[in-house]
Amino acid sequence: MWETLMEAFANFIHSSGLYWLIDNFSDMGYKNLIMIIVSLTLMYLAIKKGYEPLLLLPISFGMLLVNLPITFIMEGAMTQIPLPDGTIFEFAGTKLEAAATFAADGPETVSYILSQAKEIPGGLLYYLYYGNKLGIFPPLIFMGVGVLTDFGPLLANPKSFLLGAAAQFGIFLAFFGALMLGEFFPEFFAFGPKEGAAIAIIGGADGPTAIYTAIKLAPHLLGPIAVAAYSYMSLVPIIQPPIMRLLTTKEERKIKMKQLRPVSHTEKILFPIVVTILVIMILPTTAPLIGMLMFGNLIKVSGVTEKLAEVASNAMMYMITIFLGITVGATTSAEAFLNFETLGILLLGLVAFSFGTASGVLLAKLMNKLSKTQINPLIGAAGVSAVPMAARVVQKVGQEEDKSNFLLMHAMGPNVAGVIGSAVAAGVFLSLFLTA
Amino acid sequence: MAEWLEEGLVATINGVGTVFLVLILIAIIISLFKYIDKINISNLFKSEGKKTAAVEASQADNLVLSTPKSPQEDDGELIAVIVAAIAASLETSSDQLQVRSFRRINPTHTLWNRR
User: Fold this and answer.
1) CB A193 to CB B7 under 8 A?
2) What phi-psi label fits residue A29: left (phi over 0), alpha (psi between -120 and 50 degrees) or beta?
3) Which of A410, A392, A361, A382 is closest to A156 using CA atoms?
4) Do B4 and B43 sit in the same domain of this protein?
């Protein structure tokens, strides 16, 4: 009796995560421990510092869950096949997959597996992750973003589109950088064009677009890419201002821009329809992102589907944010995250962001020289999207020079053009590399 | 030229080119919007003018004001405020409500004063 009790107790101890952690510490355990500390740090940044808490908190919690030992919360189904000698063979996959794998051994084996094997379902986050894997969550979030986006400032000043396009230079520079790292340091960075494209989109400063592209082109890098994208987006107020100040003169920063013309309701309704048709006709691969973004905008501006707009931008968006965040976090297992590639991604993301800001500002400077009406070059920095944070940064930097200068609405134009620009850039990458 | 370099250059030129092309195209079309609107505005104003007049007439029919009111009060405004408050508490929009009667209750006749 005493012995049985002790044995049960020992078994219990052996099946605990803590035992696994200590037992495998030098091999894998220490990595899990590091990841747990990283997740707690991100949680601290989200809660205490308020860095993109809506996404960073679910991501960091997903990270914590998947790195707590032997939870199998992100593992797929498993099939246990009892063998004639009494032992159990474990197959990573469903019963059907097991049967298909051993189909060559004859129909008897297949029917034996189908009748005798036991299928153990996968973990919670594994199944929730399908919303990401199948590319469903990011476009749905984009729909909510569409509802919340006011394209008015862009309609009032169509030149803003140029700035939204210029700021995408950073993306292509980072793409180049990724190819270079993959070429010269292949032992550290397994970056081909697909990986390069997925990493470079971080410079679009647009979470859903980055996640969508990563899922399609380089799903194994999704975790670090998402973490880098959201970290840099929350760091926009720190990364951008020095670059903006460096590239502009005091006089340029003081420029006051002409007030924007009022935009009619008809124009606002026409905009999402025209953009959808035009962009998707040219780049069919952008249909999920641009389509959902513009649909979201249309249900708001049309004025006849208030309830739909409300659901898409509130209840639904928050729900999907939870699923998306926690499952993206769950892709950051220790082996997927703790490597040189993550460092490379963080570095390239920063390059993309900084050069995007710089090219936006430089084109705005050029436009100011050429245009009849004055353009404050600062608004070019908002072209990197990161709505509305980048536009607020422009407002703040502008007011540092002149308290009475209000650039916010002018910056919103390039800002929302940047969203369309980075979705188009993602579409170009998808059309180039998705089938390659 | 090295393969990676060629690949990178092709993708970059392609990408930057497409991004600019698409966004410039949209910009051109958007800049035409203001003209479309100018053509429309004259028509819209005509039809909208009629519509608002009709709406006002029907609203006037619906507002049966049964109390004599003091001349300095703007009842239209007051009704609008009350309707908006009711609409908010019923969680509907004010166009779902129809004001049939509007009457001030004499403040001395509140429940508290009745004995």
Assistant:
1) yes
2) alpha
3) A410
4) yes
Enter the tokens of residue B69: 């009111």
Q: Do A179 and B41 touch (CB under 8 A)?
A: no
Longest Cα–Cα distance in chain A: 94
Checking DSSP bridges between strand B64-65 and strand B101-102, what pairing results, if any? parallel
- Are A288 and A135 spatial neighbours (Cβ–Cβ below 8 Å)? yes
pLDDT tens digit string along A201-233? 999 888 899 999 999 999 999 999 998 998 888
Q: Specify the pLDDT at position B40.
A: 60
Two tokens, residue A215: 């899922």
Residue, of B89 and A246, whose pLDDT is higher:
A246
Condensed to tens digits (0 to 9), the pLDDT of residues A257-272 reads 988 888 889 999 999 9
B8/B48 same-domain check: yes
| Nearest to A190, CA basis, from A338, A347, A340, A328 | A340
Q: How many helices (H) and strands (E) does chain A have?
A: 25, 3
Burial code of A66-81, b = ≥16 C-beta within 10 A, e = fewer?
bbbbeeebbebbbbeb
ipTM field: 0.86
Cα gap A408→B48, rounded to integer Å: 33
Number of domains in chain B: 2
What pTM, to 2 d.p., does this model score?
0.81
Whether residue B82 is found in the same domain as residue B40: no
∠ CA(A130), CA(A135), CA(A138), 5° rounding? 110
Question: For residue A379, what are its two tokens?
Answer: 């608004």
Examine the pLDDT at A363 and tell me if it is beyond 70: yes
Mean pLDDT of A130-141: 93
- Closest residue of chain A to B38, computed from CA coordinates: A264
Report whether pLDDT(B78) > 80: no
Q: Which two tokens stand for residue A315?
A: 């209840």
Residues B115 and B98 in one domain: yes
Q: Is B21 touching A (CB cutoff 8 A)?
A: yes
What are A26's two structure tokens?
């030098």
- With an 8 Å Cβ cutoff, is B31 touching chain A? yes
B33 plus B86 within the same structural domain: no
Q: What is the dihedral of CA A269, A274, A279, A282, to 10 degrees?
A: 170
Which DSSP string do the residues of A178-226 spell out, in sequence order? HHHHHHH-TTT----HHHHHHHHGGGG--HHHHHHHHHHH-GGGHHHHH
Neighbour tally for A406: CB within 10 Å: 15
CA A279 to chain centre: 22
Flag if B19 and A424 touch (Cβ within 8 Å).
yes
Q: Which residue has the tokens 């050069």?
A: A355
pLDDT tens, position by position, A291-325: 999 999 999 999 999 999 999 999 999 999 999 99
| Segments forming the whole domain that contains residue B50 | 1-62
Nearest-neighbour CA in chain B from A425: distance (Å): 6
How many CB atoms neighbour CB A257 within 10 A?
19
